[in-house]
Amino acid sequence: MDENMRKMGEGRLKNAAATLTANGFKTLIFSAGAEAAAYAAALPGTTAGMGGSMTARDLGLQEKLRAAGKEVVTHVAGMSPEERRAVWLKAQAADLYFASPQAVTLDGKLIFLDAYGNRGAAVIYGPKKIVLIAGINKLSRDEAEGLRRARDIAAVANNIRLKKDNPCVKTGRCSDCSSPSRICNAVTLLWKRPLASDIEVLLVNENLGY
């Protein structure tokens, strides 16, 4: 990363960390993804739930968690709906749950956009500890910009990755479609930390995920 961009990123992450902390989220800043992944893998707990996350994939987080002796609970391709449901419920009751928001706003909000809502449910309540990891590319000015980022960047990229036959794959932008294979069905917006949940946010001065 260019040194000037790195320094600018540090400032933006500090601003976001301050507002997230004020909103009740314990927040740490890391200069590199490898540092954040090592910290996450060392957190106490024996089970680690996880939804689909390109950020986690970029960090090699599943491999690091398993190397640390943790059981990773996540769905995989080819599971039946009944198998997925069982895995999602087990993930929501894990010692740790890892996810990445599509947007982190500079006024301290966290935005998630999902097809099924299993991740949205887990980041609100259930796991003993919820760990949310976000790269500098997820920072957005406010809620409106964050929702636009979730729809027009993250969702479009994921539709392409998943080979969905949805309009955004062709146009490169969200059109609020009614496609049967639509993946933008549930928005979870954390204004502040839900009172019964232990949530920690790891901000990284690198681009991670979508």
- The CATH homologous superfamily corresponds to NagB/RpiA/CoA transferase-like
**CATH fold-level assignment:** Rossmann fold
Number of helices: 8
- What gross morphology would you assign? globular
Distance between the first and last residues' Cα: 18 Å
Low-confidence stretches: none
Number of strands: 10
In the residues, how many domains can be counted? Answer: 1
CATH class annotation: Alpha Beta
Strands of the widest sheet, in order across it, are: 1-10-7-4-2-3
- Mean of the pLDDT scores? 96
Give the proportion of residues in helices.
40-55%
Largest sheet: 6 strands, parallel
Radius of gyration: 16 Å
Helix-strand makeup class: alpha/beta
Sequence of secondary-structure elements: HEHEHHEHEEEHEEHHEE
Task: Kindly list the characteristics that best describe this protein.
single chain; 210 residues; alpha/beta; Rossmann fold; 21% strand
